[in-house]
Design goal:
The chain is of the alpha/beta class. It has eight helices and 13 strands. Helix 7 links the parallel strand 8 and strand 9.
Length: 314
């Protein structure tokens, strides 16, 4: 009888344990989040790259073919090119990141209104989605992913300047928690539009950790520097690093009205890009960073793309 009761109790305990959902573990350190970042990386047997082509005057070139390019992966030709296309209508998943620290207080109102106008122009209902994230010493999402431009505008206008600057944390969070998870049932173009002076004095993550997360999430970072002094600062160099590492671009508007022009150019670029997919040669599941290089065989053309990706780990 005792054995029967013990067995029944043991069986009930097992059933109860199997029915429980795993407890979520809060992120307590950058190292913990770095481990979580591994969930973004899937087994890579094909690499997809978005890239932009301009002439020496900065005009977009949209009529090129696959044979007009040379692709190198880790300094090797790919095993095979799977697809090549001019992709101007992919659904966008855009994170608008606005520096709300004290250092940009004088320009804040104008930049808010320029950002509202940008999202009104670029977000196509039923196709594109964007979210709004403001940051000073902490990052705050004031509007989650939506295609409703009125809600996005409200999220932008909710932001108030003040406090320190946690730039790297904001980029890391936007890529890891939102853009890496963005889905639409097919290919999407993931991008961050960042308005900042590039100064960081509050982040837990480093600049390189934030760049790595953007690369893992396949996010292009476009930057509008809020420095209007005409003198390149240390912060501007930080912003350049984010743009160049992800295949994006940085703008240095010298007048406040130039901010609107920068948004217009970003919109044009997002609709004027190419995509190539290929199988890498000699790919090893070693977690190593592999470089990507795309060159035009036509003279006088410049190609911009992300600098590489991380191979899967066993």
């Amino acid at each position: 009888m005792r054995f029967t009761l013990f067995f029944a109790f043991l069986l009930a305990a097992c059933i109860f344990a199997l029915g429980q959902s795993p407890a979520s573990t809060p992120v307590t350190s950058p190292d913990a989040d770095q481990d979580a970042a591994a969930t973004i990386v899937k087994t890579v047997n094909e690499v997809s790259v978005i890239f932009t082509v301009t002439d020496r005057h900065g005009a977009f070139i949209k009529d090129l073919k696959q044979e007009d390019f040379k692709v190198l992966d880790d300094n090797k030709l790919p095993a095979a090119i799977s697809s090549f296309s001019s992709q101007t209508d992919l659904p966008l998943r855009v994170g608008l990141l606005i520096d709300a620290s004290s250092s940009i207080r004088d320009r804040f109102k104008f930049e808010q209104e320029a950002a509202v106008e940008f999202l009104n122009q670029i977000v196509r209902p039923g196709s594109d989605q964007a979210f709004v994230l403001g940051f000073d010493s902490v990052a705050e999402v004031t509007q989650e992913f939506t295609d409703d431009t009125n809600r996005l505008a409200k999220g932008i206008r909710m932001l108030r300047p003040g406090g320190g600057t946690a730039l790297y944390d904001a980029i890391y969070s936007a890529c890891h928690e939102r853009l890496a998870q963005a889905r639409s049932g097919g290919p999407v173009r993931r991008a961050i539009i960042l308005l900042s002076d590039g100064e960081d004095n509050q982040s837990r993550y480093t600049r390189e950790q934030a760049i790595e997360m953007a690369q893992r999430a396949e996010v292009i970072v476009y930057v509008i520097s809020t420095n209007i002094s005409g003198i390149k600062t240390r912060g501007d160099k930080v912003l350049e690093r984010f743009a160049e590492s992800t295949g994006g671009r940085i703008f240095f508007p010298l007048k406040l009205n130039d901010v609107t022009a920068a948004f217009t150019q970003i919109e044009a670029e997002l609709r004027s890009q190419y995509a190539v997919a290929y199988r890498p040669a000699g790919l090893m599941a070693d977690g190593r960073f592999r470089t990507i290089s795309i060159e035009s065989v036509r003279k006088g053309l410049r190609v911009r793309c992300r600098r590489g990706y991380y191979a899967p780990k066993r």
